[in-house]
Design goal:
Layout lengths: L5 H5 L3 H6 L5 H15 L6 E5 L5 H8 L3 E6 L2 H7 L7 E5 L11 E6 L10 H14 E12 L1 H6 L4 E6 L2 E9 L3 E10 L2 E10 L3 H8 L3 E7 L14 E8 L4
Parallel strand pairs: 1-2, 1-4, 2-3, 4-5
Antiparallel strand pairs: 5-11, 6-7, 7-8, 8-9, 10-11
């Protein structure tokens, strides 16, 4: 790739981890509990946490009794995640668009809007194809994405935050295809500039992406797994089963 992709820069900085350090672990634990109950996966199932970040969901999945591999493109995130490694919980640096050779899983989890970072739908298709190849027969693919309709409707164009004396100015916009977040950081008098970009994907986009590969079994709208509503739901959570005829 001639030009470095935005996420390979931003996600590997200490500023990214500082800005999002207040993520709600209690909410995440509740979500994982509800998911496990819904999926009814046997204990010791082999699962992949795809784009795992620092591995907080991986740890929770492991605590639930699964054999967990967490992967992420960010070397910094994986370095932090590896501090939690133990028997049946491991972490590796990996690009989600690529198949991991000689690895098969009962379920793949892609959580907290860790999808749609790329330039076009062809890159998304590579992710779906890779997941399909790595799943066992009738394996499950779980995606937790933003509800793009609601995000756009409630988009806050500008906000400021201060963490540990570091000043963050955040500008957001949507061009109809992507939601952009421009992050300006002032740290000890030095200015740093970063960008986040997530594709504006709705349920119909995922249905098209999954065609021929996966069958969507459930669509939920929040971490309590209530029914998805395009207007009111905070999340778009999909549980899909690998098609056995492909």
């Amino acid at each position: 790739m001639a030009e470095k992709e935005w996420f390979s820069t931003w996600f590997d900085t200490s500023y990214y981890h500082l800005l999002y350090r207040h993520r709600n672990d209690e909410e995440a634990a509740t979500f994982i509990k509800h998911l496990i109950n819904k999926l009814n996966l046997p204990k010791n199932s082999s699962v992949l946490d795809l784009a795992c970040g620092k591995g907080r969901h991986s740890v929770m999945l492991h605590q639930a009794g699964f054999d967990v591999l967490g992967v992420d493109l960010s070397k910094n995130s994986i370095s932090l995640a590896k501090q939690n490694e133990e028997d049946k919980l491991s972490f590796e640096v990996h690009d989600m668009r690529e198949t991991m050779e000689n690895k098969q899983f009962d379920a793949v989890f892609n959580l907290f809007t860790s999808f749609g970072y790329f330039d076009n739908s062809n890159e998304n298709k590579k992710v779906v194809d890779a997941v399909h190849k790595m799943l066992d027969e009738k394996g499950l693919f779980v995606i937790d994405f933003m509800n793009a309709h609601k995000v756009l409707k409630n988009l806050v164009a500008f906000e400021e935050k201060i963490h540990d004396g570091i000043h963050f100015s955040i500008n957001k916009k949507c061009d109809g295809q992507h939601i952009f977040k421009y992050i300006d950081v002032i740290d000890k008098g030095e200015n740093h500039h970063f960008m986040e970009r997530v594709q504006y994907l709705v349920l119909e986009d995922f249905q098209q992406l999954f065609e021929g590969k996966f069958t969507i079994q459930h669509v939920f709208g929040d971490y309590q797994l209530n029914t998805f509503d395009e207007v009111y739901s905070d999340r778009l959570i999909l549980i899909a089963e690998k098609n056995t005829w492909n």
